[in-house]
Structures are given as structure tokens and as C-alpha cells.
Design brief:
Layout lengths: L1 H11 L1 E5 L18 E6 L9 E5 L7 E3 L20 E8 L8 E2 L1 H11 L7 E5 L21 E2 L1 H9 L4 E4 L13 H6 L4 E4 L10 E8 L7 E11 L9 E2 L2
């Protein structure tokens, strides 16, 4: 009962921010992957008792989590990743000055730690490139799919040494467009998951609580994830609200 009371207190004293993009037709996706489609099979307007759809999409659609096996054979699939993997303290590092196709340098992480404090074991570290501003449905979202920036491999090695749980970004991939994806094997091969296509980093403070629950696909290389940030309410006692996409 003590744990339940603590959970109730947490929900009553924090603001919840949904960091997840809505899954919908026309959303950005990598060209070699299956686009998101939703086909209505039954609906009350058709004389059916209930409404349901067939959904098709790639494991790495929208806001999603990469499992270890995505790049490193033998590493855990999504269904063998601990349920508490994306639960803990979120760290929000601003790297919006990184140019297209460029790499945020390790110095940005060191500057963050100098200003706000050390990244700790078990943290979930996010890099805000501001790329979410390019997200759009249909042809308007084409700029989201090219020339995105990433983090330098030195950052991946540094965060691995810090023993973080996961590293995320607001771009299509953590590694820069056109790169050889160096951070994927560095992190995924050593128990650190990757979160991509994250939304709302621009609304979050340097530190916040984070909870993410990916779909449990058998042998999955990754999965869409519902990602939620928890931040302390302001002292004026405003009510908790969920900010949708």
C-alpha cells in the first residue's frame, strides 16, 4: 500500500508531458521501411457492432526504442529488455547549434555537466537538436528525413562509461544522416538502448522524470514506445495536465 500511495502522490504533484508522436498515416518514415497504414475493417456506420482497424507499420516507426539486436547480433530483443529500462531520471542536453549532417561534440556534454551537474548511472540522456520542428504529415515532412545531425562517437563512449540506461534524440536516428552509424554498435552492443523521433524536448527542463513502455514484440529489433516526462508542478499549485502531441 505504501508504494501505491507514493504513486498517487507522484501523479498529484507532477505535470505529465507526452513525448510521443501520434502514429498516423502520412507520418515520416525511412523509405525502406513499411509506412504506417490503418485500414478500417468494421465500423458502426457499416452496420457492425464494433469499430476496429488493421494496423501495419515497421518496428521503428514514430517515437521508438532500438533493442540491442537491432545492430548487434546476440544482444537482447525488445521482449527481453527489462520493463524498467526506460524509467528513471531524464537528462535534456541542448545541441540545437549542431549543423545539418554534423556531430554534436563531447564538449557539449561536459559543458552541461559543468552547469547542471554530473550525468549519473541509470540516467536516460536526450539530445535536443530542434529537429522535431521539421516533423510534418505528408510531403511537408520531407525535410525531417534528410540531413539530420547526430552525436559524435566520443559522446557514445562517454555515456557508456557513465553507465546510462538509454540515449535519445528528436531526429530520425541518433547518428547523423549519411554516417556509418558508429554510436549504434557502441551503445546497443553494451546494454544501452536508443530512443529516436522523440517529441517535446524543447518543453522540458535539464532534468525530469521519464517513463517509457515499448510494445513487447517477440524477437523485436525495436518497438514503438509511449514516452512520458514527469516534471514538478510550479509552486502556484497548478493542476496536473497531460500535454498531447
Amino acid at each position: 500500500m505504501k508504494a501505491i500511495k507514493k504513486l498517487q502522490e507522484l501523479l498529484n504533484t507532477t505535470t505529465l508531458i507526452d513525448m510521443t508522436w501520434t502514429l498516423e498515416e502520412g507520418m515520416p518514415y525511412w523509405p525502406t521501411q513499411t509506412p504506417f497504414t490503418a485500414e478500417t475493417k468494421e465500423h458502426q456506420s457499416l452496420g457492425c457492432e464494433s469499430y476496429w482497424r488493421n494496423i501495419a507499420f515497421c518496428e521503428h516507426t514514430g517515437t521508438h526504442m532500438d533493442a540491442g539486436c537491432h545492430f548487434v547480433p546476440g544482444q537482447p530483443s525488445i521482449d527481453r529488455t527489462p520493463v524498467e529500462q526506460i524509467m528513471g531520471r531524464g537528462v535534456n542536453i541542448d545541441v540545437t547549434d549542431t549543423p545539418p549532417c554534423g556531430y554534436a561534440p563531447l564538449s557539449k556534454v561536459l559543458e552541461f555537466e559543468e552547469k547542471y551537474g554530473r550525468i549519473q548511472e541509470g540516467d536516460i540522456v536526450f539530445f535536443r537538436f530542434g529537429w522535431d520542428e521539421k516533423w510534418a504529415i505528408g510531403p511537408e515532412g520531407k525535410d525531417y528525413l534528410t540531413d539530420w545531425p547526430g552525436i559524435h562517437p566520443d559522446i557514445g563512449k562517454y555515456l557508456l562509461a557513465r553507465k546510462v540506461k538509454a540515449v535519445g534524440c528528436d531526429t530520425l536516428a541518433l547518428d547523423a544522416f549519411g554516417s556509418t552509424n558508429p554510436n549504434h554498435p557502441i551503445l546497443l552492443g553494451n546494454g544501452v538502448n536508443i530512443l529516436e523521433n522523440v517529441n517535446k524536448l524543447g518543453e522540458l527542463p535539464p532534468f525530469f522524470g521519464v517513463i517509457g513502455l515499448p510494445c513487447k514484440f517477440k524477437d523485436g529489433s525495436g518497438a514503438t514506445i509511449r514516452l512520458v516526462a514527469l516534471i514538478d508542478q510550479e509552486e502556484d499549485g497548478k493542476e496536473v495536465k497531460e500535454i498531447g502531441t
